[in-house]
Amino acid sequence: MSESASFDPWIANDDLLRVFNWQEVFGNANPVEIELGAGDGGFILEYAKRNPQKNFIAIERLKGRVSKIAKRAVQRDLSNLRALRLQSEYVIGYMCSPGSISVIHIMFPDPWPKRRHFKFRLIQLEFLAKAHKALANGGVVRFTTDHEEYFQWANRVWASAPGWKNIGVWDASDDPKSDFQQQFEAEGKQSHRCQWMKI
Hints:
Layout: H1 22-26, E1 32-36, H2 42-50, E2 55-59, H3 63-75, E3 81-84, H4 88-95, E4 101-107, H5 125-134, E5 135-145, H6 148-160, E6 164-166, H7 179-186, E7 192-198
Parallel strand pairs: 1-2, 1-4, 2-3, 4-5
Antiparallel strand pairs: 5-7, 6-7
Helix pairs in contact: 4-5
């Protein structure tokens, strides 16, 4: 498909007080899934292609990466995918209508391995409260990391947060692999996954 697509894959980020109506953004009422820190889009582009009955939002703060995702969405005619250049936690906390998201994908976030940097990790009680508000009832967060200590730490944080239930590991054998996942697997690293549901 040419650059003159019938849809615009970019979601404007010029109004930071905007609360998105996803039905207006996509033109339909299909379930909405978000990937936080989408990188170059290796996961979400293929996932959106395989699931045309769902809508997807790729959130990434680096302009070059978001531009690449948007360009590829047009080339592949993925009208169910949008790209947004903003900080992940801000979007989840302030720009998503309550109960409007079905799945939040968090894949290989920065583990901030030094103890003095734990405060910078994404999985914190404050973030989980925001994610809980954004998710629909029964909605889930799927968390994947190659860092075992961060995985254990994140699960302890989740377990102490109200309104969540650990529903175990989902079958990711057929899921597309993100760029980071391909890199880590080539290095022989193991992926750790957990799935927490809003209750």
